[in-house]
Design a protein that fits this description.
Belongs to the cytochrome P450 family. This protein is of the alpha+beta class. The protein is about 50% helix and about 10% strand. The protein binds protoporphyrin IX containing FE. The site of protoporphyrin IX containing FE has 27 residues, from helix 13, helix 14 and helix 18.
Length: about 400
């Protein structure tokens, strides 16, 4: 146990990051809605029970943009954080107007426009290509490898770049920029944001001149019934959101999922006997070791009671997804990985992809990639074994991310 209700959780706590599974158990049981600190150091209520997390994420009175709340210094705090991270003023709009940062009709408009380009047809049609990409990556592996850098990372970045329409030659650059954009090292994020924004504006200009069969071209074409086109800033912001949201998260699902199955050979055996269980297994892996530990910060736009605690207008809330997914009120034996576990009722049954209006836009793609990646990996290398007994976790706040996963393939 790494945090105590008396001090309150802090998402930057290295001990919490190093203990990605159990760190919230005591908080959830003893002080399920408790004041801690958010990544920028300001006070935030940590909400840790399943029902309360869903209540927060499903309640329009909790908003993603501090601008939407009255009487708060959250905007000032946010601007201060950007300054600290080296993001200059001209790039702030790209950081604050993404689909995940806006509320109400602004969000409805963006979600509708991107949903038109991000269609089920496009995702389903991509499956054979995802299989090909996975097979090609596995062809290149032998002996002892780090699964994170050699497989888990290259797969989703290739898929998302291909989907969006980022040329093959530029993908390594995007991988670097993506990693830097998550870095808390001084200056790294600012530089990465500047590079990604400039690159994407140029790419949009190219697609305007020469349309292609990709999501970027669809976005350029996308108009709602009122002829409400995306502005260039919004389009760039959307592309950045898709690439950054769809890259490391999925890589971490593949990495965490591989580790989970390698350390639970009985579960892997069940999947070998009953391969039709793979989609169920991926859903359970999302619950048991899903990569996103905590939802984006929410702000109360009015006084709202959650789990018996009044959260006052203007106060910030951290919905702890990883804790909700381990809540014994929602699951029998939540600590047990069970690839046959089926969600009760409709939907995922877990909150690893969030809940409510900001529910992950890329969930179907992520599940498809997770399934194809893990299944191809374990089919190709049935005798694969871990090389290290203990794994190292990367210090990325809010993310359950392995620094590496050394394995012996045969
Ligand atoms: C939203 C998780 C993959 C695009 C979210 C949210 C979560 C999440 C938890 C909601 C955050 C909140 O409400 O604060 C994940 C996980 C993934 C994954 C665990 C992989 C295993 C992807 C992929 C894409 C994507 C592949 C795109 C290609 C998005 C977008 C949103 C989002 C655009 C914002 C939706 C909105 O605000 O309406 N994701 N995601 N994600 N995700 Fe994902």
């Amino acid at each position: 146990m790494t945090t105590t209700p008396s001090t309150g959780p802090n998402i930057l706590d290295p001990a919490l990051i190093a203990d990605p599974r159990g760190g919230f158990d005591l908080v959830r049981e003893e002080a399920p809605v408790v004041l801690g600190r958010s990544a920028d150091g300001t006070p935030a209520w940590y909400v840790t029970r399943y029902d309360d997390v869903r209540a927060v994420l499903g309640d329009p009175r909790f908003v993603n943009s501090p601008v939407s709340t009255a009487g708060t210094d959250a905007v000032a705090n946010r601007d201060q954080m950007f300054e600290m991270l080296g993001i200059s003023r001209e790039f702030v709009p790209y950081m604050t107007s993404s689909i995940l940062d806006v509320d109400g009709i602004d969000h409805v408009r963006l979600r509708k426009l991107v949903s038109r380009a991000f269609t089920v047809r496009r995702i389903n049609a991509l499956r054979p290509r995802v299989e090909e990409i996975a097979a090609a990556l596995l062809d290149g592996l032998d002996g002892s490898v780090d699964l994170i850098s050699e497989f888990a990372y290259p797969l989703p970045i290739t898929v998302i770049c291909e989907l969006v329409g980022i040329p093959e030659a530029d993908r390594p650059l995007w991988r670097e920029m993506g990693a830097a954009s998550n870095s808390i090292a001084p200056g790294a994020m600012g530089t990465a944001v500047r590079q990604m924004v400039t690159y994407t504006h140029d790419l949009i200009d190219q697609r305007r001149a020469q349309p292609a069969d990709d999501l970027l071209t669809d976005l350029i074409r996308a108009q709602d019934e009122d002829g409400d086109q995306l502005s260039d800033v919004e389009m760039v912001t959307m592309v950045l959101a898709l690439v950054t949201a769809g890259h490391e998260t999925t890589a971490n699902l593949i990495g965490n999922g591989a580790l989970a199955l390698l350390t639970h050979p009985d579960q892997l055996e069940t999947l070998r006997r009953e391969p039709e269980l793979w989609p169920t297994a991926v859903n359970e892996l999302m619950r048991w070791c899903g990569p996103v530990q905590i939802a984006q910060l929410r702000y109360a736009s009015a006084d709202v009671e959650v789990g018996g605690q009044v959260i006052a207008a203007g106060e910030a809330v951290q919905a702890v997804l990883v804790s909700a997914n381990q809540d014994p009120r929602a699951y029998d034996e939540p600590e047990r990985l069970d690839v046959t576990r089926r969600p009760a009722g409709r939907g995922d049954g877990h909150v690893g992809f969030g809940h409510g209006i900001h529910y992950c836009l890329g969930a179907a793609l992520a599940k498809q990639e997770g399934e194809v990646a893990l299944r191809s990996l374990f089919d190709r290398f049935p005798a694969m074994a871990l090389e290290a007994a203990e794994q190292t976790w990367a210090a990325v706040p809010g993310m359950r991310q392995l620094a590496s996963l050394p394995v012996k393939l045969r």
